[in-house]
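Data deposition worksheet. Section B asks for the primary sequence of the deposited chain exactly as it was used as input, without tags or linkers unless they were present during the calculation. Section C holds the resulting structure in token form. Section D is free text for depositor observations; keep each observation to a single sentence. Incomplete worksheets are returned to the depositor.
Section A, Depositor: J.P.
Section B:
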Amino acid sequence: MMRILPVLILAMSGFLVSVAMSISVIFIPVKLESMFQDEHIIGALLSLEPFLVVVFCFFLPAMLRFQGTLYWLALMLPIKGIAFNLMQYSSVWTWGGAIILLGIAGGGQITLYQYWCSQYCSQMFSGNQGMVLGIFATAISLGLAVGPYFQAELLSMATYFPLLQQWQLNNASGLILLFGVLGTLPVMMIYRSAPHRQTIESYSFVDCYRRTKGAMLAIVTTGCCFFSCTGFLVLYGLDNQLDDAPYLFSAFILGALMLELPIAAISDRVDRKYMIVLCIMVSMSCVSFLPIAITHFYYAVTLLFIWGGFMGAIYSVALALISELCEQDGLLVSSCTYTLMENIGGIIGLILTGLFTTLIGGDALVYVLMAACLAYFAYALTRYPIR
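Section C:
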């Protein structure tokens, strides 16, 4: 029981950080649309966050050779505070700066927790990495799913408690800061297991990509789909006159919460490459039916629940596959490359979705996601033998 405790605490921290990210997923695109009313600008601004995470991942190995994990986690707190102050203004420049800082802080926290968890699991759970990493990934999905509900409940409580208003918890930006700060506290209980300053590793980003190309390209596809959904799924539902559109993303994440861990556990017993292909196939089928289902709330949430489960499972299965293929001294670079690929996909998805939404309308979201799934499926058919 004691050896699983660090994983559970890391999962708790990841949960709190992902609650903050979930609130920003709903709050920031709607706020930007009310201020600028241009999907092209919105897509460009939202793509700043994954772009900064990409830059962060490039420098993370060098940063961890300078100071340990806990030092950089502590540094994320003042960055979130600056972002909170910038969100109090209505300029495109201040909001661009706020999104950049939130990307560095939120993405940096998740990347560091992911590296910490994967290193610990490779040492303590070598035979069941898929299931154990699935616990961490499920906690992330849970935070993303319940974030809107936490936001609604806390904002309603703020009207009755003046102290919450005094602490600036009567608006979404204050809640983003609160949960981001709370996400740093639990890991202090397991500081002894934190990765310390690193020596120079024998792996490079290119070496890691070549060893795990199939898993990395799957993460690019998943990042493209996930980030596009975070930025435009709610707006897509509103464009189709769906009154409960804010709950669409929650259904997507709830599917990841319920189905991700069972699928990750199954992947421990089968070839993970083919499990990833299966998840992409199911995701592609769900995307193709989204324009039909989006006009009916219950059809839409059922479809998004299934899609979210299989899309979310790719994160756990791919991370377990990467941890297996990369040796112990390559886990830092492999974790950075994993996050790098996810956010490259996110940048591509957000920019293309914002651009084509401006040109051809709301269905551009479906076209971009379908193209991403087809591209990976075409790669898998030419690289993996059919048994």
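Section D:
DSSP finds 15 helices and no strands in the chain.
The mean pLDDT is 77.
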